Amino acid sequence: MEALDDLIKKAKDDSVNVSSLLRDIKVLFGEFGQTAPEWVIYELEGYGKAKVPKYRQLKGEMKSWNPYYGWVPVIHRSSEIEEKVCTRGSGQSIKQIEELLVDKTATYEMPYPTSFAEQIIEGSLKTKVSLFVSRSSMTHILETVRNKILDLLLELKKDNPTEKVGEIQKAVGGMRLPGGIALGPLMFSKDGKTASAIICPAIIPFDYGITNSLNNLNRTNLAPDEFQTAFNSQVEDLIAETLIYFQNRLKSIVKGNSGQFNGVDRCIKEYKRSGIDVASLCDVNFLLQLDKVRGRKHHTDRRYDADYTIGDTNYDSVEKLRELNRKVHETIHTLNDSLAVTHKDYDVKVTDIANGMSIEFTATSHAFDLTRGAKTVPKKEDSPKDEL
User: Fold this and answer.
1) Alpha-carbon gap, residue 181 to 183, rounded angstroms
2) How far apart are CA 363 and CA 184, in angstroms?
3) Which letter, b or e, does each residue of 159-195 get, where b requires 16 or more Cβ atoms within 10 Å of its Cβ?
4) In degrees, to the nearest 5, what angle opens at C-alpha 331 toward C-alphas 326 and 332?
């Protein structure tokens, strides 16, 4: 991908600030429909109360302020004590560290709390105590993060080869169309409160719904009650988007309305009536297990159980919920790709235009009666293709 190559080039350029690279990576993952790795967010925003990594543990010299002599070294009772109290974690954001290094001094001061100073300095003299760390210790943090960025970008490049036949598939969610186009819904309200996909392949609104569901997982750490709510919401959203896909995709096969599907088992039965064995086309057992959990969480008093297992997997973290999202996305796309071979629904025509690209969907075996709410009807064999 061109964006990855540009970022790799920038990461190797020492004149480009590390904070700028981190922001670019956050944007890149946002375009993938994903949240950037946790360490990227911490480096951008600072670690706060979170544990800092080993490369941010700085060793220095402890000094106390003497009103007559200025800063004087603190003598410790043992080397073990000195090792312990003279090593401190730096939790500032990368931007703050870069701003500190603008002042090209040899050492940088890290003040200790007053309560700590009183424990270290014996006697009645009240003074301040600070740790002085070398400039090289601070620059080491920047170099380590720059190398971590390079490793991440090279790994992304390896996992996202540029030579794909006819499409670029986003890492998670996102719409797939010929030519590597990724789009959301085809129609937006002016206030942004509503959006819909106009007459188009069933996989497009499915992808849009899945991506929205994934975007709800924009926080890495959730309290137990928040995670419980997030898990229940994800399960319900994923099943809802799956059922809507099954319903919409069957319309083009039966060339008419397919009714309301209220469960995956109902979907399987309806497809079987049309001679389609869904179990042979995708991992339908996984979808059934997911639907079973949805029913348990939604319709019984077990909604608040701390049980996050689906099949043999325990989805007990935000990252695992993202994996669940990806698995549903992959399962439905596997089914859709198989149906496209035996029950083609649309032809897609992509045309370059002056300011962008035009995409036309043409229904292959059905049409839409717009006088009856876009009801699906069989296409007349003696009429030309109805272009949407």
Assistant:
1) 6
2) 20
3) eeeeeeeeebebebbbbbbeeebbebbbeeeeeeeee
4) 105
| Cβ atoms 318, 227 nearer than 8 A | yes
pTM: 0.52
pLDDT means per 10 residues, the chain with 388 residues, are: 79 92 87 80 91 91 84 81 84 91 85 74 70 90 94 78 35 43 54 66 86 78 83 91 92 80 91 94 95 81 80 90 92 94 86 74 76 71 46
Own/partner pairs for 304-308, CB < 8 Å, 24+ apart? 304/228, 306/224, 306/228, 308/231
Tell me what pLDDT residue 323 has: 92
- Alpha-carbon distance of 348 to 181, in angstroms, equals 12
Contact 262, 243 (CB under 8 A): yes
| Partners of 369 in the β-ladder | 375
Helix 284-299 to helix 224-254 angle (10° resolution) is 130
Query: Domain map of the chain by residue range?
Result: 58-93+105-134, 187-346
The distance of Cα 133 from the centroid of its chain, to the nearest Å, equals 37
